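User: Thanks for the earlier help. One more: DNA polymerase domain-containing protein. Can you show the sequence and predicted structure together?

Assistant: Of course, both are below.
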Amino acid sequence: MAATQTPTMLKLGDEQLAITHPDKLLWPDMGITKLDYVQKLAALAPYLLPHAENRYLTTIRWPEGIGGISFYQKNCPKPVPPYVRTAMGGTINYVVLDSLPTLLWLGSLYSLEFHVSCESLSDPLPDRWILDIDPSLEVEPRIMEAASAVSDLLATLGLDAVPKTSGATGVQVVMPIERGPTYDDLRAFGKFVSEYLAAKFPRMFTVERLKKNRGTLIYLDYLQYYPGRTLAAPYTPRARPGAPVSTPLTWEEVRRDPKPADYHLLNIEERLRQRGDLISRLPKQRLDRVLQTIASL
């Protein structure tokens, strides 16, 4: 059946947003249409926006849904609605993702993924540390065991963090931190964590940058941590079969060995009603003593 050509109009306070081709299937395997997707974004907004507002934003757009072509976008698309704010970062005019209308407008442009920086547009110092646990295998049965190993090491350092599915195949460990350490400081911390774990568990982890040299080992990617670099935001959908959502977990859940595909656009709302945002509930961690100890080694 051909997609409906008549736009659906959404009222967003004093603004209106036209959803063209509302029946177009974006995730055909899940039956999720463009209108469904925009409505799901509205439900995700209270959780996604606090992690995205006032940060450098990269979106990935899939105009024909997940089976079609895609492209990354940093510069604000045109024309720009009056309710969308932008901010310059170098030569790039970024969208400031700080409101429900802006989020839904981006969704209406087939932005199926939202990637954000660890620092804000107004402060060069990051407020979170992230370690990307990236499997070499498309299906990695040890991925949650790997995340637990990171948790155990952090605990010995007196630190806590929140694991989240990347929404793809991996897991990211997210630690909200008190501002102060620089990106260089935090990359050194990530290097220490990664190299320690790779030495302790040589049959599980690697810090080898070249994928062809990793074999079946799980890559601890601390090198992604740079100013302006963007990573999958908490609660962003991902343009993959199954409509997965990057979802924070408890460590108890990690020990039960869930699959990243367990969390998706069709069930995420119920989970968020029950769990809320796990990352916002974790106190900001202080890293000054740990960084001083590492620097002295």
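User: Great, one quick takeaway?

Assistant: The helical segments are 34-52, 100-108, 143-156, 183-200, 251-255, 268-275, 288-296.
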